[in-house]
Amino acid sequence: MPELPDVQVYREYLDATSLHQRIASVDVRREDVLETLSARALQQRLAGRSLESTRRHGKHLFVRASGNGWLVLHFGMTGYPDYSKAEDPPQHTRVLLRFDNGFHLAYVSQRVIGRLDWTDDPGGFIEQHHLGIDALDESLDAGRFREAIGRKRGSIKSALMDQGTIAGLGNIYTDEILFQAGVHPRAAASDIDEPTLTEIHRQIRQVLQSAIKARAQPERMPEDFLTPRRGGDDATCPRCGKPLEKEKVSGRTAYFCPTCQAMY
Ligand SMILES: [Zn+2]
Predict the structure, then answer these.
(1) 157 and 56 share a domain?
(2) Does residue 262 fall inside a structural domain?
(3) What separation in Å is there between the alpha carbon of 220 and the centre of ligand 1?
(4) In total, how many domains does the chain have?
(5) Do 153 and 192 touch, CB atoms closer than 8 A?
(6) pLDDT tens digits along 26-47
(7) Is 0.90 topped by the overall pTM?
(8) What is the pLDDT of residues 220-240, one digit of tens each?
(9) d(CA 175, ligand 1 centre) in Å
(10) Cα-to-centroid distance, 180 and ligand 1 (Å)
(11) CATH of the domain at 228
C-alpha cells in the first residue's frame, strides 16, 4: 500500500514527466474512483489546461491545474501513476489524461480503492479530512511528537498509523520504524518512556528519508532494514538472525523481532 515514501516518489515522477503540457482530453474509465465530482466536471476542469505544480501531505498528492484548483490523488492499496506514450495504458487504468505531445498520464488502481478528488484549497481539504501533521513536517519536533503519541490509547503501532495524528505512515513503515527503534508493535503507546519516544521520532525521519532515497523499492533499502525481509516464511532478523514473527495488530499484519524489540 502506498505510504508517504511511495507517494513522494510518485510526486517526483509527476514533476519530472507531466507538468506544463496542455491536456488534450480526459478519459474517465471508472467514474466510481471520483470522490465528489462527476466525470464531466473533471473533464471541464482539466481539458485544455495543464498541470502546474504538486504538493504532498501524508499519503495524499495534490496537483495544481492551471486556471484554478487542485486534483487530489489518493492511491488506496495498489494505485500508481503511469506516464507513457504506449498505445495501451496499463491494465486497471481508471482515469487517463492525454497530453498534446502524444503522452498520457494514467491513474492506475487495480482494486479501485484509491480515489481522485478536487479541491480549491489543499489546506482546507487536509482539515476537512481530519488529517494530522505530515510525518516529515519540520515542525513535528520531538516534543510535539511525544505529546501527541504519548497520550494515545492502544498500541504504539496503531498510534503511529492513525492518520488524524500523523499523516503518512502505514503498515510497512510503522513496522520498520519500530524495528529500528527496538520497540514491539504491540507496546502500549502510553507506557513508552520519553527517551524511547524521542528515538521513535528520530527513526520516523531516518526511515522515511532512507525509503525515499531507495525510491520506495525494498531491494534498494539499507541492509539492516526489516522491510526487504517481510513476506517470506523463513524471514530472519537483520540484526540478530533469529526468525521474525508476525502478528495481527489493529487489523494489519505486523512483522517484528521478538528478541530485538521490547514490549515495555
Ligand atoms: Zn532480532
Answers:
(1) no
(2) no
(3) 21
(4) 2
(5) no
(6) 999 999 999 999 999 999 999 9
(7) yes
(8) 999 999 999 998 778 999 999
(9) 13
(10) 10
(11) 1.10.8.50
